[in-house]
Write a structure and sequence with these properties.
Distance between the termini: 97 Å
Order of helices and strands: HHHHHHH
Structural class: mainly alpha
Helix content: over 70%
Number of strands: 0
Strand content: under 5%
Number of helices: 7
């Protein structure tokens, strides 16, 4: 770095151009620190450039090996999960949960509740309730099925009734009038009933 670069960097910070110095720091010390800061910032920039070049080179090597971004993420995840599993915190937590599970499953309350549920499942009252609910489900299903058939049949009867035919003719007539007039045709309907809707 020549003297012109040094002077411009000093001016940019304001230290050499009459800026205030921190207490206990002479102008000479400030200049030395400024020079050192400039060197460190230059080194940081150089290291960034080297790092970027190394990362590009590593990416190219991985590409040549057929290692894509997805497989790299998978490897990182697998490695991270393995590190978590090997950590002391994970091992202690896993051991504590295992101990807790053993205590709960071997406790009198758990064993009593478990056997009580088994007894309830084998009881006649439970079996009768289960059968009754099953029958109710079948009856309800049959009722809905027959109701659907009845509604379908009733709609079929209605469709063939003279009232529905008249209504259908009026809708067709209205449709023809609207569509025919928009297409530049006359307002006459092809149906026999030309009564207004």
């Amino acid at each position: 770095m020549d003297s012109s670069e040094h002077d411009s960097s000093m001016t940019s910070t304001g230290v050499a151009s009459g800026g205030t110095l921190p207490p206990g720091l002479t102008e000479e010390e400030a200049e030395e620190i400024q020079v050192e800061l400039t060197k460190v910032e230059d080194e940081i920039q150089t290291l960034r450039q080297v790092l970027m070049a190394k990362e590009r080179h590593a990416t190219e090597l991985k590409r040549r090996l057929g290692i894509g971004p997805l497989s790299e993420i998978k490897q990182n995840f697998t490695k991270g999960w393995h590190e978590v599993q090997c950590s002391n915190a994970y091992m202690r937590t896993s051991q504590t949960l295992g101990d807790l599970n053993r205590r709960v499953t071997s406790s009198n309350l758990y064993l009593t509740a478990s056997s009580t549920f088994e007894e309830i499942g084998r009881s006649d009252a439970y079996k009768r309730t289960q059968e009754t609910l099953s029958q109710a489900g079948h009856v309800t299903s049959a009722a809905f099925s027959s109701m659907g058939s009845a509604i379908r049949n009733r709609f079929g009867e209605m469709r063939n009734s003279p009232s529905f035919k008249s209504f259908e003719d009026k809708v067709d007539n209205m449709k023809y009038k609207v569509m025919g007039q928009s297409n530049g045709e006359s307002g006459h309907s092809p149906t026999s009933n030309n009564a207004p809707f």
